[in-house]
Specification:
- The chain is an alpha+beta fold.
- It folds into 2 domains: about 5-175, no CATH class; about 245-365, no CATH class.
- The protein is about 45% helix and about 20% strand.
- Helix 4 (about 65-80) packs across helix 5.
- The two termini are about 35 Å apart.
């Protein structure tokens, strides 16, 4: 999630654990710093933009790495603060909790986190909360500001911090329950409108858990369905778009495609932009302005050859009408998203089920 949320979560956890021993102000500051440490992986060098995309939130977010790092960092804190020297296990546990809670709430977003690396190397990405959610962050921010303004520990502050942590944890749990309910509702809507896709994934929309984007994925197309918990009986609008699998038929053995397919869990589309094959992660952003788009191939005559990869920048992600549409959906008012309803899609390179890849026929799978 966003850096402010990670800071205040770590600060709240540390205040709850060490506030009585160290004082609320120092405990909050220590926890805030610890809560941001896993994101220092943004400074690690990567070979190309795809690696930077798929390997962020990697080993620095693993709870196994956190378990190994907690004693080392904890001993450093015990040397630095004399009030902590008689509380080794409490300090170690605090460090671990500040690190691991950072990773756990990141895993609740759609981007995901390699939470169990190296035993389970794939990212865990629930997608039940957006990367910025004020209803989650504000209670933590409030108690952390309170702790930073307090010199001495008190039972009122303790109750406030514990209460904020309990409420925000319950909010995360509620988001998962709602996500499952929305996916079940979406399955019914798809069934009533032509058939259930191969895979269905409900993702929380920006800043809330009232409105959800549901992706219905099939081999050659994907369908977007936007559901609000406040929706009435009006029929839901389904937006259908091609995935153009023929564009990546010659690129399936490239490292860039394999990584994008793995990281997106298959939720991708390809398009031809200025003779470049661009692959977008369908989970992040809205059609047609996805947040993560990578050029991994180039059309050369009748063939497609691997290139890059390079990050596709400068594509408008939202417009003024999108905000009006989003406000309507938050209220449960039926509304057509014009940017998606009128989105232009590239025509397939070939309509046949096979094509020539550098002179050799490649079957699409």
């Amino acid at each position: 999630m966003d850096s402010i949320t990670q800071f205040v979560l770590g600060a709240a956890v540390s205040t709850a654990c060490l506030g009585k021993t160290l004082g609320p102000r120092k405990a909050a500051l220590i926890g805030g710093v610890l809560g941001t440490v896993p994101d220092l992986d943004v400074f690690l060098p990567f070979d190309d933009p795809v690696d930077s995309f798929v390997y962020h939130r990697g080993w620095t977010h693993s709870i196994f790495v956190h378990a190994l790092a907690a004693p080392v960092v904890g001993e450093g804190l015990r040397l630095l603060f004399k009030d902590l020297r008689e509380h080794r296990w409490l300090v170690w546990a605090t460090v671990f909790l500040c690190f691991s809670t950072h990773a756990i709430i990141d895993a609740m977003t759609v981007y995901g986190t390699r939470l169990f690396w190296p035993i389970y190397p794939d990212p865990v990405g629930v997608g039940s909360v957006f990367i910025i959610d004020p209803l989650y962050s504000l209670p933590l921010l409030g108690v952390v500001i309170w702790a930073l303004c307090k010199k001495n520990w008190s039972s009122r502050l303790r109750n406030g911090v514990v209460g904020a942590l309990a409420v925000t944890t319950a909010y995360m749990g509620l988001s998962v329950v709602i996500q499952h309910r929305v996916e079940a509702q979406a399955r019914t809507v798809f069934e009533e409108n032509g058939g259930v896709p191969d895979k269905i994934y409900a993702i929380a929309s920006p800043f809330n858990i009232l409105v959800w984007k549901v992706i219905g994925l099939s081999e050659d197309k994907y369908e977007n369905l936007y559901l609000s918990l406040l929706d009435g009986d009006a029929p839901a609008e389904i937006y259908t778009h091609p995935r153009h699998p023929e564009l990546v038929a010659c690129l399936r053995d490239t490292e860039a495609f394999k990584k994008l397919n793995w990281f997106s869990r298959g939720y991708y589309r390809s398009e031809l932009v200025d003779n470049r094959v661009v692959v977008s992660d369908l989970r992040m952003g809205l059609t047609p302005g996805y947040a993560f788009r990578f050029a991994i191939g180039e059309k050369q005559g009748e063939d497609i050859k691997p290139v890059g990869p390079t990050r596709e920048e400068g594509f408008g992600r939202v417009n003024d009408q999108d905000w009006e549409w989003f406000a309507d959906r938050l209220k449960g008012i039926p509304s057509v998203r014009l940017a998606e309803a009128t989105a232009k899609t590239e025509q397939p390179l070939q309509t046949a089920l096979s094509q020539q890849c550098g002179g050799a026929e490649t079957k699409q799978g």
